[in-house]
Amino acid sequence: MKIGSREIGLGHRPYLIAEMSGNHNQSLERALEIVDAAARSGANAIKLQTYNADTMTLDIRAPGFVIEDEGSLWAGRQLYELYQEAHTPWEWHKPIMERAASRGLHCFSTPFDDTATDFLMSLDVPAFKIASFECTDLPLIRKVASTGRPMIVSTGMATLAEIDDAVRTARAAGCLDIVLLKCTSTYPATPENTNVRTIPHLREAFPGCEVGLSDHTMGCGAAAAAVAHGAVLIEKHFTLSRADGGVDSAFSLEPDEFRQLRVETERAWQALGTVSYGVRPAEEKSTAYRRSLYISRDVKAGDVLSAENVRIIRPGFGLPPKFYDIVLGKRARKDAPVGTPVSWDLVG
């Protein structure tokens, strides 16, 4: 599949998405700086989230509308207030997308309702992202899929049956290009809860879908492991500096870290290669330093070859070591000074 003109698949370097989310801290200038930094850091795309507080929840403090989990980054926050703080103003989307285009980045977004989907289509986005929390919102998936644009679907918390519902719904509505992202919906996530071995299973369970990782862990180890298990796309939250704060800053990568992500995921992809045995072209010179049979003391024609005058040593220009026992006890056909590689024309 493609996003814009960029091929996405196992035969291509991993596609890296820098998720801006609310890390702009309600500053358009900072949002544009994030775009520039993402481009310099090796991202392929910058991603936004398109909603406002009223399209996400109700402005009330009733049970369920306030985050009560004491372990949450947002403990005690009212949902409506949190979404007000985190949302990207819709009038910013166009200048952010224009800046991204000027930096060679794709820019697309996660819509959270039909109005956001229509708005993003008016901006001609090259793809859509579905968040994990909306993976079970089949009406939204149907609406997004009907645009015909590629869909990237995070699957945090989703059962295999729920993912199947989402894929079937998207395909029935006309979307054939789907990337499923393994995701752990904790913020931040731990490596122990990432379970990248799910990635090849997802690929097997949903033929025709590409597979990637939406990664909320710190660092790039989980992402590199995911690529080694077949991930073709990695999404990471991105900020200029965690010290600047922001709703998602605590689990976002800074520019230098994202650059390292680019390096290590590309190395992991390059290291995959193919099933391979034997001497590779790059290894041909190294074969000279294998062990082989050499004359270790001067011998004359007719002398018996023995452990006293034949050794298994480096370099590798003599007979392979597996012939050592066969050579011992044979007579030399000709004189051979120390350092002569043992060959069959020497052995009587």
TrEMBL record:
Membrane-traversing stretches: none
Domain AFP-like positions: 292-348
The enzyme's E.C. designation: 2.5.1.97
CDD domains, per the entry: SAF_NeuB_like (cd11615)
PROSITE patterns: AFP_LIKE (PS50844)
Keywords assigned: Transferase
Keyword Transcription appears in the UniProt entry: no
Sample GO molecular function, one term: transferase activity
UniProt cross-references to Gene3D superfamilies, sorted A to Z: Aldolase class I, Antifreeze-like/N-acetylneuraminic acid synthase C-terminal domain
Stated name of the protein: Pseudaminic acid synthase
Organism: Ollibium composti
